[in-house]
Design a protein that fits this description.
Blueprint: H1 5-90, H2 97-114, H3 117-129, H4 134-150, H5 155-168, H6 176-189, H7 194-210, H8 215-227, H9 232-247, H10 251-260, H11 266-285, H12 289-295, H13 299-309
Length: 310
């Protein structure tokens, strides 16, 4: 059979054309698959993002609900604490229900700037128990709360200190501002905190008022003693003993002071004041420690006398 080159060539051309067509179809199919894969991947990413956002929102909502629940719980607890303290306050009142409700409302109005209502109610109880009239109680409490805030202590402690001074000296409740200013002057000039002073005053003030020493003089002495490193609690005790030594001197002290012309007792302190008496003591004893010791034999009192007399 003769060799037909033309037929073979035609066959090759036809086969190549079919090959190219098949190749293009395969490539198009691959591209569609790639595009579909990208779309699917993008959709999956979007779905996970939505899920993440959803979870985040859910967590935020949950946290918000928990915060609101805690706040509501705290508010309820605070309200209950206040009502318990206010119930104690009412035991000190002998006024009408209307006046009592008015007092309660006025106390609540102090709260935003001067402390929480529960603390103020505790302070109000202290104010009334110190025989401050209900009509003057809110103003007194307000001044005490301001002092506590400035002195970084609680209202109850401030009220206790202020009422101790006012009652010891027989002052009117309106003097609370002046006493508060005097206390801050002591803190400023001395080396002690308002809280330390407040809790220590009860040791010395009743005796000081009895012997006729003014509160300002007591404050000046306490400032001087604490500046020398003596703690407020010890300083008030030492000062108390000084007053007792002058008010009730021993037989030996009376004999010596009479010879030297040093006044003793309440009249001497009222006439000269503490500073004047100390100056006289130093001058007439010529600073002799042995003589001073016989006049003021109590060790605590002598320590204060030596420190104050220089």
């Amino acid at each position: 059979m003769p060799f037909d080159a033309g037929s073979i060539k035609a066959k090759l051309v036809v086969d190549k054309t079919q090959w190219d067509k098949s190749t293009k179809q395969i490539r198009a199919s691959q591209k569609r698959m790639t595009d579909q894969t990208k779309k699917t991947s993008s959709a999956m990413k979007g779905m996970w993002k939505q899920i993440a956002v959803g979870v985040g929102v859910t967590n935020l909502i949950t946290m918000g609900i928990r915060t609101m629940t805690r706040q509501m719980s705290d508010t309820i607890k605070v309200g209950r604490s206040f009502e318990r303290e206010w119930a104690n306050v009412t035991t000190m009142l002998s006024i009408s229900r209307t006046e009592t409700d008015k007092l309660k409302h006025e106390l609540r109005m102090l709260s935003p700037t001067l402390g929480d209502t529960t603390e103020l109610a505790k302070g109000m109880y202290q104010v009334l128990s110190a025989s401050i009239e209900p009509a003057k109680a809110i103003r007194f409490l307000g001044e005490a709360a301001k002092s506590a805030k400035a002195g970084v202590t609680d209202t109850k402690i401030a009220v206790d200190a202020l009422t101790t001074v006012i009652n010891a000296y027989g002052m009117e409740a309106e003097a609370v501002s002046d006493i508060s200013n005097d206390m801050f002057a002591i803190v400023k000039r001395g080396k002690l905190t308002y809280g330390e002073l407040a809790v220590s005053l009860g040791t010395v003030v009743p005796v000081a008022s009895t012997v006729g020493v003014k509160f300002k003089d007591v404050g000046a002495a306490l400032a001087a003693l604490t500046r020398q490193g003596i703690p407020a609690s010890k300083a008030t005790m030492q000062l108390r003993q000084v007053f007792m030594a002058i008010l009730k001197p021993s037989a030996e002290a009376e004999e010596i002071t009479e010879k030297l012309g040093i006044g003793m007792g309440k009249n001497a302190l009222e006439a000269q004041g503490l500073a004047g008496w100390l100056t006289e003591l130093k001058e007439k004893t010529k600073g002799n420690a042995d003589i001073m010791t016989k006049i003021v034999p109590n060790v605590r009192a002598l320590t204060a006398v030596m420190a104050l007399a220089g």
